[in-house]
Amino acid sequence: MVTTFTTRRRFLAALAGAGSAALGGSPWRRAAASAAADSAAQFTNRLRLPGSSGLYAVVLAKDLGQLMVGEMQFEVLPKVPSPFWAYAAEVAGSRVLNPTLLARPGDRVRLRMVNRLKQPTIIHWHGLTNDERNDGIGQYQVGPGRSFDYDFTVRDRAASYWYHPHPHDVAGEQAYRGLAGLLIVRDDDEARLARALDLAVGDTDIPLVIQDRSFSFEGKLEYKLTRDQMFMGFLGEEILVNLTPRPYLDAARRVYRFRILNGSNARSYDPHAAHAAGGLADGSEIPLLQINIRSSPDYKREIPSQLSRLPRLAPAAGEPRRFTLGHDGKSNWTINGWRFSTAHGTPVTVQRGARETWLLQNNRASMPHPMHIHGFQFRVLERRNSPDQIRAVATRSNGLMPQDFGMLDTVLVWPGESVRIALDFSHPFSGDQTYMFHCHNLEHEDTGMMIGYKVRA
Ligand code: C2O
Ligand code: CU
Ligand code: CU
């Protein structure tokens, strides 16, 4: 890895002059050989950024009103129109696709989703605290030509959340074909940071949505899975950032904020700046984005030493609730031996207001599973039996990775690992609420690595 790093750095310096840096990623598997071979290709496409219209247009969530889920043509590869599925809306007379939604805690979002696909769909607001109906899961999917009305209040702290499809069995395909957008919640902490550093969304506060895609010979998005790919999860041959292949960003010498979202179906990344060593020893090195420093404005801001404060972590009583990640020997991943089926109902019940510890145990003969919990954000308490390359970057005696700090909605559980997480099931919703707990490898989710849990009021 260190060798690649040196080689690559020399290459980038040659390409863009002394003032360039790159964001690279190393997926955990070596299956990316073809993408890696591309690393010698030039970064010739300007990174698509949120703006006032078109893809990723910035819109206040409470003003949106309606989102159409439909199929259209879109040039993912330059000059090659490809069938593409998107969330579309009209805002002030112009069309926006997969809008970047902004919200503040307390905002009420009333929104109609209209399904113009030829299959059922539903929008899930990933990471948000919602009641089950507004959470948007398969139980609420609507068929072609139907619509679904959301009405919820944003309750969560500042973060980069996202929205994507969550129908039964085909979430992976729908997200792959284009359906995904960001929802950025901004609160007072966030406003203070933006003021301190002079940040603006789409300009110096930049979302980077990382997705791997494969293209047919004619350059159209392709999603065809063998049985094996269904089992491992889909890995695309090319890594896009903001749907831009081989992107570059012209920047100034000053502080930028990047909000990095792994919007891939199955691939894991370990993004880092090319001039910084580190990361996992596993996987291959793939350049993602080239940043060209074009100017040096007079900028003398400092990153505040404290960005925010986490809510206090109240201790849980009792034994942890155990979840074992494994497979059924027939190419299906399971949680506690279960494959998701609506016929199962909700195998897990927790009491509203309870504090619990969950223990997520991954089999040794397994793969990393990014486990995601709907309805409640959680904290990671401890990692045990981590593989060596994880232990090597762990920050403390309890084995945590740098990305384990903070409120999370997803935690990556490595083969052989036991991860303890803390959950507080307090929420303001009366009546029983059902949520999903699943692997966010979307092919795993679609093939049943998901379990429903009920919060009893
Ligand atoms: Cu982002 Cu249940 O999903
Ligand atoms: Cu979710
Ligand atoms: Cu998985």
Furnish the topology, listing elements before pairings.
Elements: H1 2-16, E1 20-25, H2 33-37, E2 45-46, E3 54-55, E4 58-60, E5 65-77, E6 80-91, E7 94-97, E8 100-103, E9 108-115, E10 123-126, H3 132-135, E11 147-153, E12 159-165, H4 171-176, E13 181-185, H5 188-197, E14 205-215, E15 221-222, H6 227-232, E16 238-241, E17 244-245, E18 247-252, E19 257-262, E20 272-273, E21 286-295, E22 321-327, E23 333-335, E24 348-351, E25 355-362, E26 369-373, E27 378-384, H7 388-391, E28 410-413, E29 418-424, E30 433-439, H8 442-446, E31 450-456
The protein binds CU-O-CU linkage (C2O) and copper (II) ion (CU) (2 copies).
Tell me about this structure.
The chain is mainly beta. Helix content is 12%, strand content 39%. The chain has helices at 2-16, 33-37, 132-135, 171-176, 188-197, 227-232, 388-391, 442-446, and strands at 20-25, 45-46, 54-55, 58-60, 65-77, 80-91, 94-97, 100-103, 108-115, 123-126, 147-153, 159-165, 181-185, 205-215, 221-222, 238-241, 244-245, 247-252, 257-262, 272-273, 286-295, 321-327, 333-335, 348-351, 355-362, 369-373, 378-384, 410-413, 418-424, 433-439, 450-456. A six-stranded mixed β-sheet has the order 3-7-6-5-9-11, with no helix packed on it. It has a five-stranded mixed β-sheet with strand order 2-18-21-1-20, with helices on one face. Strand 22 (321-327) and strand 23 (333-335) form a beta hairpin. The longest helix is centred in the first third of the chain and has 15 residues, at 2-16. The radius of gyration is 21 Å and the shape is globular. Residues 1-22 and 25-40 have low confidence and may be disordered. Residues 124, 126, 164, 166, 372, 374, 436, 438, 440 line the site of CU-O-CU linkage.
